[in-house]
């Protein structure tokens, strides 16, 4: 049964899982150490990649993953929009222009990798500019199920000066359908911030779900996620060569 049509409510991750997010302080140094050696992973040939950070994060948070992917031979860019506090008209215009510039410069489509809320943005960028996007890879992104099944709402309220959230359920349900490009959702069942069921793509010809082990905060610094990303990128390279 498609996740979006499940009758049973999806609960936010438990307090125990939320506390397990502290694992990120062990996951980051381990990732930095192991990602220095990437000989066993498939390599790229300079194809463009943009990584979009999650809510409250910036390009500083995605730097270790960008470095690892550069070591694999890709041309990797941040989103260059500072801290992600939600989609704004200025941010949307800048990202639209950046995708076009990358397409013109590399004469190739860009792979978008989005962590958490950044994956929601990446999917919508691909929906509106499929001619510029090769593929979307999401990392623990709330793209399905119940928009309330997470522990992020408090952060949203704080960022919006305590204003109550106004969830556009109709718009959310429309966005559940994947954009018209290949989409891969990487998720962990021990996610302490987003219910893992909500991080899955609906089954379709252009979608796939990959499970890894770790925390939500650590998905950017997860060796299994890096290996999965490298494999997906290698498939994208072979597809474009056909």
UniProtKB/TrEMBL annotation:
Superkingdom of this protein's organism: Bacteria
This protein's UniProt keywords: Hydrolase
GO molecular function, one term: hydrolase activity
UniProt key word rRNA-binding: no
Pfam families reported in the protein's UniProt record: Abhydrolase_1
Domain AB hydrolase-1: 48-166
PANTHER family referenced in this protein's UniProt entry, alphabetically: SLL1969 PROTEIN
Protein name stated in the entry: Alpha/beta hydrolase
Originating organism: Banduia mediterranea
């Amino acid at each position: 049964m498609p996740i979006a049509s499940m009758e049973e409510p999806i609960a936010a991750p438990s307090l125990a899982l939320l506390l397990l997010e502290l694992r990120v302080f062990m996951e980051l140094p381990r990732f930095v150490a192991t990602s220095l050696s990437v000989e066993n992973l498939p390599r790229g040939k300079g194809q463009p990649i943009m990584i979009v950070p999650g809510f409250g994060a910036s390009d500083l948070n995605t730097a270790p993953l960008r470095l690892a992917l550069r070591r694999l031979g890709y041309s990797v860019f941040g989103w260059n929009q500072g801290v992600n506090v939600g989609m704004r008209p200025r941010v949307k215009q800048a990202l639209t222009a950046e995708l076009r510039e990358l397409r013109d410069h590399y004469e190739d489509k860009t792979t978008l990798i989005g962590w958490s809320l950044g994956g929601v943005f990446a999917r919508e960028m691909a929906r509106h500019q499929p001619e510029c996007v090769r593929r979307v890879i999401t990392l623990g992104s709330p793209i399905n199920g119940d928009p309330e099944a997470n522990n992020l709402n408090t952060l949203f309220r704080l960022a919006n000066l305590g204003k109550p959230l106004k969830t556009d359920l109709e718009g959310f349900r429309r966005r559940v359908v994947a954009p018209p490009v290949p989409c891969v959702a990487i998720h962990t069942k021990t996610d302490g911030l987003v219910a893992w069921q909500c991080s899955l793509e609906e089954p379709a010809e252009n979608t796939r779900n990959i499970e890894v082990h770790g925390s939500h905060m650590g998905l950017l610094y997860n060796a299994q996620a890096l290996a999965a990303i490298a494999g997906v990128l290698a498939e994208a390279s072979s597809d474009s060569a056909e």
